[in-house]
Structure formats: C-alpha cells, structure tokens
Amino acid sequence: MFDPETTIQESEKRIARIWRMIALTGVASIAFGVTILVWPNIGLSVLIALFGAYALVMGSITFVSAFNTPMKGSDRAWLLLQSLICLAAGVAVLVWPNLSAVGLLYAIAALAIAFGVAQMGAAFALPISGGRSLLLLLSGMITAAFGVVMFAKPGAGAIALLALIGAFALVSGITEIGYAIELRKVAGELDERVRRVFPKPVTHG
C-alpha cells in the first residue's frame, strides 16, 4: 500500500544526505584552491602532500556517502567509482617518491576528468528536475574540460601550473556548493508536491 508520508521521509533523507556530501567536497575543494593561490612560493613536496590529503578527504567523504545514502545499485556505482579514483590518486601521489610537477599535474588532470564524468553520469541518474540535471551536467563538463586543458598544457611554468590547479579547485568547489544548495531545496519541493496530491485527511474528535 502506498504511504505518502513514508515516501516523503525516504526522499528527504536521500536528498539531504546527497547534498551534504556535495557541500563537504565543495568546501574541501575551495580550501585546497585558496591555499594554493595565497601561497605562491609553495614547494612541490608540500603541494603534493596537500593534493594527496585533499584527494583522500574527497574520496573518503564520497565513499562513506555511497553506503550511507539509500539509492539503487547503479546510482551508488557512480559515487563508488568517484571515491575510488580519488583515493587512488591520493595514495599514488603520496607514495610516489620522485613525482615531478608534470606528474602531479597529470594526477590532478585525471582526477578532474573523473569528477567531471561522474557528475555528468549523476545528472542522468539522480531523481532531480530537468533544470538541476542540466546544471550538474554543465558542472561536470566544465570540470572535465579543466582536466583536458591540464593534459594539453603539461609544459606550463610553475606560476601557470599553480594558477591552473587553484582555479580548478575553486571552480569545482563553488559549483559543488552551489549545486548542493539547489539540491537541498528538492526535499522541500518533494514534501510540498506529495502533500498537494495526498493531503492529510481531516480527523474529528
């Protein structure tokens, strides 16, 4: 038997957990980007350590969210793929003793492309409206485009390299937080929509 109240609660729980995960990853991206841009003389070893920690945090948040969020197996697969790529990138740069600046650039580029592809896949998988789905799709395309540009310009100077990495992190973080705010509204909209279709019966006595 269809229970509208249960449907509301399940939808709100699912959407709330997804938006929190996206907001947390957005905050991590912005913190990483700001750190790079305000520290122009950052050394390569420090930059590698920062990126490794950033990727591990992103991967851990997404991995935990993938199992804590009620969703279909195919939807969960997108989050798991994203989390495993982040974790792999973080571990790889931290255990690679002779990683060069170009090698780090390639690792970040691969992460950007993976994030972009995951976002584009989620745009079609998540139960969201057409406008928000388009927003997520565009965000994924922009993120993936950053990765492609990084692969295409591996010989850029140190300043350009830092600016590109910082810009990627900031754009990624801002779009994630903006999308998280939009996604947070879905729960309220679902509540209102279902209550209009299935109003609570008036009880007496």
What report would you give on this structure?
There is one protein chain. The protein is mostly helical. It has 6 helices and no strands. α1 packs antiparallel against α2. The N terminus and C terminus are likely disordered.
What spatial form do the alpha-carbon principal axes imply? elongated
- What's the rounded overall pLDDT mean? 75
Q: Bin the helical content.
A: over 70%
Estimated share of beta-strand residues: under 5%
Q: Find the count of extended strands (DSSP E, 2+ residues).
A: 0
Uncertain stretches: 1-8, 201-205
Structural class: mainly alpha
Q: What is the H-and-E element order? A: HHHHHH
**Rg for CA atoms:** 20 Å
Distance between the termini: 26 Å
DSSP helical segment count: 6
The major β-sheet equals: none
List keywords for this structure.
about 200 residues; mainly alpha; about 85% helix; disordered N terminus; disordered C terminus
Summarize this entry quickly.
83% of the residues lie in helices and 0% in strands. It is mainly α and 205 residues long. The radius of gyration is 20 Å and the shape is elongated.
Task: Give the helices and strands, then pairings.
Layout: H1 4-37, H2 44-68, H3 73-95, H4 101-125, H5 130-152, H6 158-197
Helix pairs in contact: 1-2, 1-6, 2-3, 2-4, 3-4, 4-5, 4-6, 5-6
